[in-house]
Every structure is written in structure tokens, then in C-alpha cells.
Specification:
The protein is an alpha+beta fold. About 20% of the residues lie in helices and about 30% in strands. It folds into 3 domains: about 50 residues, Roll (Structural Genomics Hypothetical 15.5 Kd Protein In mrcA-pckA Intergenic Region, Chain A), CATH 3.10.290; about 80 residues, Alpha-Beta Plaits (2-Layer Sandwich); about 80 residues, Alpha-L RNA-binding motif (Alpha-Beta Plaits), CATH 3.30.70.1560. It is elongated, with a radius of gyration of 19 Å.
């Protein structure tokens, strides 16, 4: 088994994130530092990440969190800022599926299944993410078409989002948008380049799973029905135990 896959199946991170962790000299196999994500791990090899011995996950855990502002969406922060894991008092090794910037609130999944995380995050699988943005004024048709076609957002990247609906009250609007990739701060960069003031941003849905009325800062395990939805949609590509 490739080393990056071993880390993913041990609940360290998604396979793509595991590539970065291995290359950052965090992983030892039988006492030897390995920086090649493609290194072949044999059945009886001892793998340690960050000084801790790893073992393959036998039961998948999936948690939904309503992330508050000023919380970092990562398993560990080098600046000792509060992370999403600080809100979940469990001993299990978990990590977030994808990221929300510290000012964005809403739905974050945490899991110990790196293969599931990899599938949900990979752009080619086009798993939709639904956001609600509170903006100044309202989106006109020209802006909507620009967002759908793709708008330059700096750093050689183009941001794209599908307009779902908007509700305007006085001088503000709540705009619902759908994304399939989720580049770094993509929606915020789209509105900045459109010169539209953004007051708040919340992710309210990931795939078919809806945030609902889960209070800010609270978390829960996915229900049996929600887990079955994930299994139904992704089991052909991802093994969920």
C-alpha cells in the first residue's frame, strides 16, 4: 500500500493532504524517515506520523460541525490558534474535510476516513457546496453571468459559482451560490473582484447533507440516514466501513 494511502486510511488526512505531510518529513517507516508518498508500506511495517504509531481505521466516523467565526479549519495550527478539533472533545483521530477560512461559518465535516475525504474534496467528482452570502445591494444579471462563466480572482486563478437565488431586504441581499471546487477564499475573492461588499458567508450544504438548525459551535454525528446517503452516492468509489 502506498504511504499516502496508509496515512489516509489511518485517519491522518486525505490522501492529497497526506502527500504534503509526508514530504514535510513527518513520517517514519520502521524507524526510517520517508518523504516519498508513493513508498510501498508492507503488512508488518511500523509507520509513525508525528511521533505516534499508526494503525488502519476499522470504523468510519463522520461528524458535522457548524463552525463559528475565528476558528481555523485544520487539525493542527502552528500559531496555536483555536481549531475545529478544539470544539470536539473526542479521543479519536479526526481531521476536517476541506477548509473554510476563519471568517466563514457553517458546515464542516470531520472524519477519520481519508479516502472518503479525498473523494468529497476532489474537483473531478463535482460534489456541490452551497453557500449563503450576505452582500451590499443585489446581484444583477451581468454579475451572475460573470460568476457562472468564470471571473479572474488573482494568483492566476478563475473563480466560478452557480447562482441559485437571492432575497433582498432594504439595501442588502442574501445570495445562495453553488460551488464545485472551493479554491482558497474563492467566494470572497469573486466578490472582491466584482467590487461587491460581502458582510458574511456561511456554508449551508455539502453534497446532499444540509446544515439545518444545528447551532453555531455545536457538532453531531451524522444520522444513519445521512450516512446512508453518503454510502449510496460514494460507495462505488470510496469504501465506508
Amino acid at each position: 500500500m502506498r504511504l499516502n494511502k496508509y496515512l489516509a486510511k489511518s485517519g491522518v488526512a486525505s490522501r492529497r493532504e497526506s502527500d504534503k505531510l509526508i514530504q514535510a518529513a513527518t513520517t517514519f517507516v520502521n524507524g526510517k524517515l520517508i518523504t516519498d508518498p508513493a513508498f510501498n508500506v508492507k503488512k508488518d511495517d511500523v509507520v509513525k506520523y508525528d511521533g505516534q504509531k499508526l494503525s488502519l481505521v476499522t470504523e468510519t466516523i463522520i461528524i458535522m460541525l457548524n463552525k463559528p467565526k475565528n476558528i481555523i479549519t485544520t487539525a493542527k495550527d502552528t500559531h496555536n490558534r483555536k481549531t475545529v478539533l478544539d470544539l470536539i472533545p473526542l479521543q479519536n483521530r479526526l481531521f476536517p474535510i476541506g477548509r473554510l477560512d476563519k471568517d466563514t461559518t457553517g458546515l464542516v465535516f470531520l472524519t477519520n476516513n481519508g479516502e472518503l475525504a479525498n473523494y468529497l474534496m476532489h474537483p473531478k467528482n463535482r460534489i456541490p457546496r452551497i453557500y449563503q452570502a450576505e452582500i451590499e445591494g443585489k446581484l444583477n444579471q451581468k454579475a451572475i453571468m460573470k460568476m457562472k462563466k468564470g471571473i479572474y480572482i488573482g494568483d492566476g486563478e478563475f473563480g466560478r459559482s452557480e447562482f441559485v437565488r437571492q432575497k433582498s431586504v432594504k439595501k442588502r441581499s442574501i445570495v445562495t451560490l453553488k460551488l464545485y471546487e472551493g479554491k482558497k477564499r474563492e467566494i470572497r475573492r469573486i466578490f472582491r473582484f466584482l467590487k461587491i461588499k460581502l458582510f458574511s458567508l456561511q456554508r449551508v450544504q455539502y453534497g446532499e447533507i444540509i446544515l439545518g438548525n444545528l447551532p453555531t459551535g455545536h457538532w453531531r454525528f451524522l444520522s444513519k440516514k445521512e450516512t446512508e446517503i453518503l454510502k449510496h452516492n460514494y460507495t462505488d468509489r470510496v469504501k465506508i466501513d
